[in-house]
Amino acid sequence: MSFDAEAKMQLLFALRSRGVTDSLVLEAMEKIDRGLFVKGYFTDRAYEDMPLPIPCGQTISQPSVVGLMTQALNVSNRDKVLEVGTGSGYQAAILSQLARRVYTVDRHRRLVVEARKVFDALDLSNITAFTADGSFGLQEQAPFDRILVTAAAEDPPGPLLAQLRIGGIMVLPVGQSDAVQHLIRVTRTEQGFDYDELRPVRFVPLVEGLAKES
Ligand code: SAH
Predict the structure, then answer these.
(1) What is the mean pLDDT of residues 141-162?
(2) How confident is the model at residue 214 (pLDDT cuts 50, 70, 90)?
(3) What is the pTM of this model?
(4) Are 150 and 104 within 8 A, CB to CB?
(5) Count of structural domains within the chain
(6) Which residues span the domain enclosing 37?
(7) Cis peptide leading into 143, omega within 30 of 0?
(8) Whose CA is nearest to atom 13 of ligand 1?
(9) Given the residues 2, 17, 23, 61, the one annotated as active site
(10) Domain CATH number, residue 14
(11) Is residue 210 part of a domain?
């Protein structure tokens, strides 16, 4: 077996042993090659279950965390999903395999431009990526069936709660940027919002405003 094939198989094994058990999520993660989203010095570590640096001082999340968040979001093929924090585009690509439509936004234009190239190369035509401050959501496309935030806020941003459809689910890390963060799941009901706490995590902070071009 080639080095790559063996490394990919080990990644799938690591995902299962860390609790990613949903077969559709595993299938999506088997299909989408993380190596395409990791560039430069770290490509040979793309199939390790580790977060890795990407441009603009950001990180591509650990694959098992991507799997667990995707699983917690419980996406169906009728869903319109918003992801806040495009980063490398890897999480959006996974979501594109499960959802009807994926909107993803990042405050760094460079990351959005790079991610679009990979989406095009893979022919992932149900993803639309925008440069925007995702803490305000994406009013023009709201409401969303599912929202996934991949940067940590102190509390769930109000506009995101407002743009979640009744019956919809949002998964996000909350907590102070360099202290303990928790992954939570928010479900919008007729009466309000239900919250459950999933696990401790560590994400880069959700920052307001667009990034200055570097
Ligand atoms: N989901 C990504 C990893 C995201 S890292 C992946 O699969 O690779 C978190 C990202 O959130 C960073 O790219 C950062 O620029 C972005 N971010 C932080 N605050 C933001 C905001 N207010 N609006 C949009 N994106 C934001």
Answers:
(1) 97
(2) low
(3) 0.97
(4) no
(5) 1
(6) 5-201
(7) yes
(8) 87
(9) 61
(10) 3.40.50.150
(11) no
